[in-house]
Amino acid sequence: MDSFIVISLIKIFVVFGALMTILAYLQWVERKVIAHIQVRPGPYRVGPHGLLQPLADVIKLITKEGLLPPYVNKPLYLAAPFIAVTMALLSISVIPFGPAIRVAGYWTWMQLANLNIGVLFVLAVSSMGVYGIALAGWSSNNKYALIGGLRSSAQMISYELPLGLAIAAPLLISNTLSLRRLVETQDGWLWNWNLFHGFQYVSFVVFLIASFAETNRIPFDLPEAENELVAGYHTEYSSMKFAAFFMAEYANMVTVSCMATLLFLGGWVAPWPEKFGSGFVPVAVFAAAGLIALFHGWNAARRKDALTFPVVGVVFLAVAAVFLVPFLQNILLPLFWFCAKVGSLLFVFIWIRGTLPRFRYDQLMAFAWKVLFPVAVLNLLVTALVIAVIS
Amino acid sequence: MMGHIPLSWFLMLSAVLFTLGVAGFIFRRNIITMFMSIELILNGVNLSFITFAYQRHQVAGQLMVFFVMVVAAAEAAVGLAIILTVFKNRGTLNIDDLNSMKD
Amino acid sequence: MDLILFLAFALIAVVAAINVVVQRHPISSAISLVGVMGSLAVLYLLLGAEFIAAAQVIVYAGAIMVLFVFVIMLLNAGGEARAGRSFVASLLGVPALVALLALLAFFTARLFPSDAEVHFGGFKGGTPEAIGRALFTTYLLPFEITSILVLIAIVGAVVLARKELE
């Protein structure tokens, strides 16, 4: 009993620390990727290639004047970002990042809490996240914030329906609500994943579209778009409270990407089993990246690159060497595959942000109720029929 | 294992919630608050259903809660639509002022 | 451990329920009602009803109460005015309520012997599988009827909220 509490505390610190760093650097990745899509360099002054930009942003947000306008409803105004961030971070607590590992003599799963209704828990927590936005809009005592808050909440609730139905289809195939068991039923080869084995292509697309709307990302970010509603529901927020909303949005993005990998892409399972050599893929990837970085450092395009690129190359080669160590492999390999899949989905999120224009609000709501919801219902019907006929 | 909870405590909590809901329904004059007191009554009843499901080791009590939730959702949707229409026509949410059928 | 959890969340539920009834502005009542539903969800977990606990948070606290909050924000009618309170009514009413509560509690405690105890894990039949099985075999007719009821409610709400065509 005692070791369980200590191990859980250690896991909480590790996951929380990793998550905070990932959220900060996700913002850097987003700015760089969108910048390169728009053929401009992005942040490159603060630290090599702008790598210290998140640190600068954090310092800026912390030291900004935290304004508490006198006309707001104080309890709700202070509670709203707290609710948004709490619900966003709470859903990470049931996501499994890998299988059972053995650390310092103790067996533990790479998951903070194993619920056998894990999928329902994530749905429940994301339903509660609507309150943060609605209360932020209301308590700000500002008509733009109120309209932004109401629009955003209505959008999130409307898209929760296709989201839930798109989740239900792979659950019929895997026959479980526990996130850990979901991955275990997709074990094996690439075609064992729910996306290929169960032909869940429609569910995957519906899930992705609905999760764009759930996290208020482009093309569904009208409620917080700058040229539409000032800044929507977080108009009156400054400094740390604004940072809380920002963090909540990125944490929601990470959560839905993790759910998509667990439900459709097989979680931490490699595309082909390890005895056929999939353990060498991360080594190959990091070694190739390191060699490319060293090559670019040798033929440097800018004077500073002659210093930074070789350092990056050496770091990548060191990481590739770490993946060769046998007793670290059963921790690092599943983590690599999980992060690769989640990272690809996050890249899709950022890619679409840089590419598509945004929907008008009535187009958005019409799309949810007239297109996405019937498609999700039909998909669930067809999946259930096929499963009933086959078995 | 310390601390098992007597079953009657759950039922007393359910009774407290029920009573508070009835009190809110009788004492308050705002329609929306009265509606929320009805939801409080339904929640108190849900708790006692689930307590009895635990006591009898049957899942039927939980199914009753499922149906109560569905009916409460339908009732909330229609009731709030009615409240919106009433507010649009009368301009007040005070139930003492909504005492005539004629406009 | 179960006792501490029960006492904590029962206290939160009772305090939030009193807050629902006592607060002047409907939005504070709505947020307190969400607090009641959240703490009741934890109590359902203690009683082994895990699917119903998740459904309570998803449906009740996450959809119905959001609907309430929307309507309160849209109507923006403000807090209730404290006018016309009859002192005699509160003098007779509050003791009457306490008497009702005492009566209910007395009969409850008498009917249920004190050796019936609840601990977390005492009832393992609240899994989604058990509920689904019962829902689609024994209780299929109520299930279909409530789905038609929800359809009627949807149509009714849409008709009521529609703008009048001049």
Largest interface: B-C, 73 and 78 residues
Mean pLDDT of chain C: 86
Tell me the radius of gyration of chain C: 21 Å
Contiguous helical run count of chain C: 6
Query: From the helix content, strand content and strand pairing of chain C, which structural class follows?
Result: mainly alpha
How many domain modules of chain C? 2
Oligomer state equals heterotrimer
| Structural class designation of chain A | mainly alpha
The radius of gyration computed from the alpha-carbon positions of chain A, rounded to a whole number of angstroms, is: 22 Å
Q: Please, how many helices of chain A?
A: 14
> Major sheet of chain A, described briefly?
2 strands, antiparallel
Report the order of strands and helices of chain C.
HHHHEHH
Low-confidence blocks of residues of chain C? none
- CATH topology-level fold name of the largest domain in chain C: Four Helix Bundle (Hemerythrin (Met), subunit A)
Which range does the strand content of chain C fall in? Answer: under 5%
Largest sheet of chain C: none
Structure, described:
- The complex is a heterotrimer of chains A (391), B (103) and C (166).
- Chain A is mainly alpha-helical and 391 residues long.
- Chain A contains 14 helices and two strands; from the N terminus they run αααββααααααααααα.
- The mean pLDDT of chain A is 87.
- Chain B has 103 residues and is mostly helical.
- Chain B has one domain (7-97): Helix Hairpins, CATH 1.10.287.3510.
- Chain B is built from three helices and one strand.
- In chain B, helix 1 (7-27) packs antiparallel against helix 2 (31-56) and helix 2 runs antiparallel to helix 3 (60-90).
- The radius of gyration of chain B is 18 Å and the shape is elongated.
- Chain C has 166 residues and is mainly alpha-helical.
- Chain C has two domains: 2-80 and 119-124, Four Helix Bundle (Hemerythrin (Met), subunit A), CATH 1.20.120; 127-166.
- Chain C has six helices and one strand.
- In chain C, 33% of the residues are buried.
- Chains B and C meet through strand 1, helix 1, helix 2 and helix 3 of B and helix 1, helix 2, helix 3, helix 4 and strand 1 of C.
